[in-house]
Write the structure tokens for this entry.
Amino acid sequence: MKISRLFTKSNESPYSEIEFKKTSSEIRNPDGSVIFELKDFEVPSSWSQVSCDILAQKYFRKAGVPEKRSSIKEDDVPDWLCRKKGVDKSKLRGEASAKEVFERLAGAWTYWGWKAGYFSGEEDAKAYFDEMQYMICTQMAAPNSPQWFNTGLHWAYGIDGPSQGHYYVDYKTKNLVTSKSSYEHPQPHACFIQSINDDLVNDGGIMDLWVREARLFKYGSGTGTNFSNLRGEGETLSGGGNSSGLMSFLRIGDRAAGAIKSGGTTRRAAKMVCVDVDHPDIESFINWKVKEEQKVSSLVAGSMTTNRHLNLIMKACGKKDLEEKKRFDPKNNPQLKNAIIAAKEVFIPENYIHRTIQFAKQGFTEIEFPTYNVDWDSEAYMTVSGQNSNNSIRLTDDFITKVLKKEKWNLNNRTNNKVHKTVDADDLWEQMNYAAWSCADPGIQFDTTINDWHTCPNSGRINASNPCSEYMFLDNTACNLASINLIKFLKDSDGFDVEKFQHAVRLWTITLEISVLMAQFPSREIAKLSYDFRTLGLGFANIGGLLMASGKPYDSKEGRAICAAISSLMSGVAYKTSAEIAKEFQAFSQYQKNAKEMLRVIKNHRLAAKGSTRGYDKLSTLPVPLKASECPFEGIVESAIHSWDQAYELGKKHGFRNAQVSVIAPTGTIGLIMDCDTTGIEPDFAITKFKKLAGGGYFKIINKAVPRALRVLGYTEKEVSDISLYVLGNGTLEGSPAISFEDLKKKGFKEKQIAILKESLKSAFDIKFVFNQWTLGKDFCSKNLGFSESQINNPKFDMLNDLGFSKKEVDLANLHCCGTMTLEGAPHIKDKDLPVFDCANPCGKNGKRFLSVESHIRMMAACQPFISGAISKTINMPNTSTIEDCKKSALLSWKLGLKANALYRDGSKLSQPLSSSVSNFDDVVSETGSEELKQKETARIVERVIEKVSAERRKLPARRKGYTQKAVVGGHKVYLRTGEYENGSIGEIFLDMHKEGAAFRSLMNNFAIAISIGLQYGVPLEEFVEAYTFTRFEPAGPVEGNDTIKIATSVLDYIFRELAISYLGRDDLAHKEPADIFPDSLGDGILGDGINAKDKSVEVTAKQYNVALSAVKKIASTGYVRNNLYVLDAAHKVNTQSHQSTSSNTEMAGDIAKNVVTVNTASEHKRVKSEEAQMKGYEGDPCNSCGNFTLVRNGTCLKCMTCGSTTGCS
């Protein structure tokens, strides 16, 4: 084939006009420890530090590169292209220059292309070699990660090793061959689809699949499988008995994948599990991850509760003022008795209670009970299944039609295809969308649409996809990917360079085709079928950056038309190139069998490019056609149509070399190495970015597309500068109108701390994230600034406020230093231009605008008609989205012709904290940290005390106490939740009844909000009690589940009886006094403590009593203990036993509280880091590889912006 030059010149180095520099790379954990370090390596000067880090850490060969090399002569290979090997005794090292990597990649492709005759002559081979190096070096395009890992090591350095069980097809003999070398034929493919048979141990069966998956995971690739062949639970086995079902084997596979992930150094396993919607176990599959997340929640809450109560019991056994025998007897040790009662109330197993007492008898004073947290890589998640794969359900048009018509749906046995169960299609649909809303899994793949666009249906159906959902083809095939960085083809005059883009597409199509020729594969079937069908995965990245830089909103007709036109041009040129290769080397071996169907698909692509709304052949759902009138870039639509005309005509004559040519991949790690602002088809995630420095640390920069977009939109340089300053701030407190460095020095800050602050403020999102113990040091905060340990460790601690600075001063300093990180409200900015800068998430802490769910779907729909495979993309949804919103987005995706739909609702994972816009609402209940201490009431305050409060709303603490009471009133479940102030008074209530969306539930929710607001404005609870008790309406009647209330005249009567008993001591409203509910209560006796006390009373001063009471109140919910902390009489006398119990419990609670604070300090630091990360536009989770909080959505996966690790396969 003839290869022309557009980027390089003959007889000149491809790097002749590119400047290089020496740099160093260092990647650290959040704690400062170094993960990776490399000094003085050579890279292009234009590359960012992040792209340099990715190259050095991930793609440089670290060892085995000989310092001196010699050529291995071959008769049919030019000298400049010959393979190399190390000279004997040559010193070995790692790669130290980007040029070495570029040359080994391009050299290996050129070598194999030359050997197979892909170039018309030596000049064409040289042109290809130079052009490919130039494009990679200038970040115009990049292949998927396995190419960087493996390709060219044998060609450039002679690196080799024993076979790893791979296979390849010899391009000369067409025979399947077992590999004898691990590197001569590299493994460049990222995406695999594998089959599974309903067989336990034979080849192609269940256990064999785990081995095949392991071979792929080991080398960093991902795989997907449709498991619908496996019989359902209870189906008969050939040898007798019944099958354990699909889910039992999915759990095994999940464990296997998780083990490889945790044991390897590459990344976590990337795996897709697909199941057809008519499988008999489909309901269990849908709810799999929902239930597993519930298990994690139970493990976390249960472990922490058990730990607290066992330590309380252990502490109670250590009372020094009792005889040894009495200490371990609850009848003689009131403190132990209360601890046991409290433990049993929260269902601590009696076995553990007895075991703890036995430990105490043996002399132990502490008990360590393991606790868990909700981190996604924590032991709690490792304990449950389903965490190592993406799950998808294959839906047919028939199923969706039955959903819309509310008809029945049959689940069919696998062994005999008989109906296993009939369900309501609508109910199954509800379960799917609830699961997606609840935990972001499973996704949906539209089986009918996928197979309507199948180029080779006569060779079999498309059953599954790779983990990221962009590669969809036959089972036991593989695809290697590459992506083109679109912004590199944007002209300075706001146009698109069609000629250069077509040239790049042609060369990368040839590159991916050569990669099939040279590759080895992990199984015989994959090697054979991948060679036979030769599927390619060319795609693009940075459409979001391109649109913003062009001044076009992502959510606009123009933006979608640009995306459609580029997608159409890319695939059209790729198919045209494939037909040209077929002219020289014949079509792929299975083409003739599928020629008619493939030409039908090409014709449908061409019709969409021409904007047709009719005439499509065998499509159940019509695509969204390209509208030329809406595309502002000149020449691109005409070129796209011309490319499809040529592809169709050439294909009719010569066939096609490749069954598929294009996908839209997440471009995770390679998106970072190309310095893309956005990946794949994603919009941007933030207006500001944090640029990494070579020596470590970050500084804040504005998205480079923003200034360009502002200029395109007509803003002057002065206006652009003003807007940028508004977004970024000054990065320092120098010149601040409030809280300058001089002001801080007056407050006790030393030069060392000022220097630390100056460095930290450069990349700060909010100055509150800098003024804390982790930045300034705990010793400095306590010794120099005078803050107590409890202040420093308090989650609500505001250092600047406690230093005497007002909120207004802090806000002014914040604006000066950190800016707003959003263009909303910026000087000069016009409202009509704001949509250009909309991102996937609200920008900055005050940003309100973000892209709608529909905008994501419609952008995908504009692109999909021109892509052979599919699009890897997560549809972002705000936390407030409902299950109904999930249904609407799935149906819209289907109607617009998408092949898959993957939703991610903010906060749907336990491990991901809610965004600040949600989590800072006053009516969100934080996890309570109280100890459930319960005491008997010995005296009652009868008089009614009403505090006088000003008409100002009193905010509840962010982390507050309270309790939850479940009951059934007249057959209706009622959940009552309270929130309390620090002093134990009630400040809010929550009410839950009926199902989501029910009118009565909504009315009760709003009623609870109204009551809460009243309480916070000072309306006494007594007034509400008087107003609402004894009201009569349905539901009413017997009350189940409440210890003291047995009948209610209405739901409101029940609620305010409960609140009055718990917070006001109004036992007159109870049908059974709180004192009577304990099975071991023996009556009041002499002093009314539940046990016939004989000890004498002791005097307790008011001060001593109040100190003890305050200590307990800090950690105990007043409502939960039914207000029994108020143990008062006129002379402040209490019974000896009662007093001992109170003081001991106070002491004990204080000790436990100290432990809790110690534990929570670390978790609080993590929470702060997570909150800060979310405000910056990141997900809020730490990276599994480097621990930094810089994960962003990347297609259907996640990628780390610090180290480049991804959870996907590209």
